[in-house]
Amino acid sequence: MTPTPRPHIAAPHATVIINAYQQAPTIDLCLHALTRQDYHGPWEIVVTDDGSTDNCRDIVTRHADTSAIPITYVRQPHQGNRWARARNLGIQLGRGRILLMLDGDMIPNLDVVRIHIDEQRRTPALLAGARLWRHQPTDLADTHHPEQQLHRLHELDQSRDPDCRRREHHEAQLRSTALNSPLPWRAWFGCHASMPALPDARYDETMIGWGPVDIELGCRLHHQAALPVRYLSHAQAWHVERNTGVHNPFRTGDPIATANYVRQICHMIIRHPDLPLAQAIPIDFDRLLLTDDDTWQIAPRKTTHPAQTLSRALDWYRRTALPTNDNHK
User: Fold this and answer.
1) Structural domains in the chain plus CATH codes
2) Strands 192-196 and 98-103, how do they pair?
3) Cα–chain-centroid distance for residue 240?
4) What is the pLDDT of residue 202?
5) Which DSSP helix (H) or strand (E) runs through 141?
6) Within the chain, which residues score under 70 in pLDDT?
7) Cα distance between residue 100 and residue 217, in whole Å
8) Spatial CA neighbour of 261 closest among 292, 298, 220
9) Looking at residue 325, what is its pLDDT?
10) Between 255-271 and 213-224, two packed helices, what is the crossing angle to 10 degrees?
11) DSSP code per residue over 231-248
12) Is 25 exposed, middle or buried (0-12, 13-18, 19+ CB in 10 A)?
């Protein structure tokens, strides 16, 4: 789809790429925060829509009409969760020397763009920003405008929702473990991350659905482009969860999303045979069951042994692997 026109700026320092799918309320809040950033050099925003049917385009257009920061909107047809391709569309359109990636439900603090640009200028790297988990129905109750919502996010030290608090704590532990391991790129979560705009900074479009598509790119850039990994605890963005639009198969139980997750894990392990990924990458494999009709299901925790499940998954992947689409490399 032809992107909406944008004002011309010379050599933007950074391009912020926002992935969107059925996230109009948080896209509105995200753009509200982005257009109030404290960085005053030239930069731009690209919103890549993975085929939403809500009013995402109208919201982006409204912000683009009033913002001094150039904002581009591009939409691709929805054919499953093709976030890798959507991100690559944003990278293709972006002209910034630094690429800052945000999910459509990530609301950046007002200094996030400046922090990423300053840190990338100091030493080009895979920079992982902080994610603070919040629950929209609980934490943003009785707020009706983006300014009220942003003020509420600043007020809260932690989410009022126990599941969000648990996820934030668990993620902090995973990130700390990864950063202190031989595979630090496992801490580079694509929901809030930046990288230099290198020619190889492209996501693997054969990896469809929810899974480690961002971690796979971090793995490649770390090992092939020698980019270090750094965590920016002071670059904070709020992950505003809603009760709809969840892609995580461990929360939805969707069999197609579950199979796509398994396929991504296997694809990454086979693509990088020299790395000990079989021990480092599979998450929650003790909850996966392969039925007699080759369908993956989510089971209660610790129902299976992760190593045995991974072995079955790799056999299943080799039997059912789809042919590579050369146009999506």
Assistant:
1) 14-247 (3.90.550.10), 250-321 (no CATH)
2) antiparallel
3) 13
4) 97
5) none
6) 1-10, 243-246, 322-329
7) 14
8) 298
9) 44
10) 10
11) EEEEEEEEEEE-SS----
12) buried
